[in-house]
Amino acid sequence: MGDVTVIGGGLAGSEAAWQLAERGHKVRLVEMRPSRSTPAHRTAEFAELVCSNTFRSDALDHPVGLLKEEMRRLGSLIIAVGERHRIPGGTALTLDREDFSADVTRMLQEHPLVEVVCEEAEGIPEGPAIIATGPLTSAALHDAIVAFSGQGELAYWDAASPIVTQESIDWSRVYFASRYGKGEPDAFANCPMSEEEYKVFWQALRAAETHEREAFEDERYFEACLPVEVLAGRGEDTLRFGPMRPVGLRDPKTGRPPYAVLQLRRENAAGSLWNLVGCQTGLRFREQQRVFRLIPALGGAEFERYGVIHRNTFLKSPAVLLPTLQARLRPDLFFAGQIIGSEGYVEAAAGGLVASLNLSRLLRGEEPLVWPATTAIGGLMRYVSASDPAAFQPMHVAFGLMDPLPDPPRRKERRKVEMAERALRELETFAALHGVMLQPGAARPAHEGREEAR
Length: 454
Ligand SMILES: Cc1cc2nc3c(=O)[nH]c(=O)nc-3n(C[C@H](O)[C@H](O)[C@H](O)COP(=O)(O)OP(=O)(O)OC[C@H]3O[C@@H](n4cnc5c(N)ncnc54)[C@H](O)[C@@H]3O)c2cc1C
Prior knowledge:
The chain is α+β, with helices and mostly antiparallel strands. It is 31% helix and 17% strand. It has helices spanning 11-22, 63-73, 77-84, 97-110, 139-149, 195-207, 221-224, 228-233, 285-292, 317-320, 345-363, 376-386, 412-433, and strands at 3-7, 26-31, 54-57, 86-87, 92-95, 114-118, 129-131, 155-160, 163-165, 175-176, 188-193, 260-266, 273-276, 303-305, 308-314, 326-327, 330-335.
């Protein structure tokens, strides 16, 4: 069936190695731990959960619940083993992390077609391969990937601004304009603030609580990309002369620029998600809600992604990868996991699943598959392969990444249920069309639960 190499035994690499071996391919799984570790890993096990022990919501009307259900139907190892080691966690799939990783490790070590090689890969392998070395890819391999992709440095800091949903923005308090009328007029939605509103926001931002940084996360990011709370700490007007400057943004209601303005940038073509420009932040998630909701247009904002600043290595994937997760420059080389710019454990494993199913198809002489963007998997893969490369930032799975419903119901809860139902229907149809075997689905309730913090 052909030998393959998988580099990295994290969530994505473990999933990928298992899927390939189960399809009859001889897999060389290269993992550097324990001879060399990363700053975040603590054990020698495969699929180590480096931080929280949750795979987040299990509800079908939550994007990660839907993603898990799609993966379950596609026979994901990570989801199946995760469910075996479920511990009480409310509406989330919460795991006993040690038992989970020990089980994945045992299954891979005992698989007759998996050869585990404990060494640091320092270059890109020849022959069919999947690179899944995660956000803490070692330096030598990082350099080799940079040279291969020709896209300059891989991003070193994941400095992402929050993203809010279109329906949660108070559009009566927003105006469209681009600075000095240059560029597309509807690319930016401007949220004006009066002097009083700005001062309240600034005070709250200055006093808000931030995440503690990991010991290995040094101060270097401050030179490249300043968190909004750090700017706020430099003085009352720093933001007003920085990312929240109003010059050139005349408010049609007053005929003048406002005192300060937060710009929202369209995050996708459908306009269902909006990015808070310049608001990369290390504030705690609940603090982000509290502080950004002080901006009048965002009083009811719902966060599809919170801002984060942490060390992270990821490809400029839209310039490097196809939606099949093949490198544009080399069809037998795939990338998977957090290194492609997805964010989260489940999303990492989903990348491993897509890459391995497609590598197996390629080796059997079949066309690799691009899953429809009506599914959570397809929406996520489209995001990493077709976004604007210049503004690309890692992203959790989200309904806003999927194709919208042609005739969406008014109620948001109903809309999510209908998107999930359509996704599972289309997954079945697409799989049948391409001869992909699916497992029976698990009956999971849809509920109104919000995202569990990770
Ligand atoms: C500090 C931190 C905390 C996070 N916390 C969470 C969280 O709580 N919840 C969540 O959902 N997501 C979290 N994430 C994001 C992400 O989900 C995880 O990083 C996830 O582990 C990514 O899976 P992966 O398979 O892509 O990478 P990993 O799980 O990191 O696996 C990559 C593997 O490749 C190995 N490797 C690296 N370089 C080489 C090399 N050159 N040769 C051989 N092996 C190599 C590593 O040892 C590792 O085992 C966190 C990320 C970081 C950095």
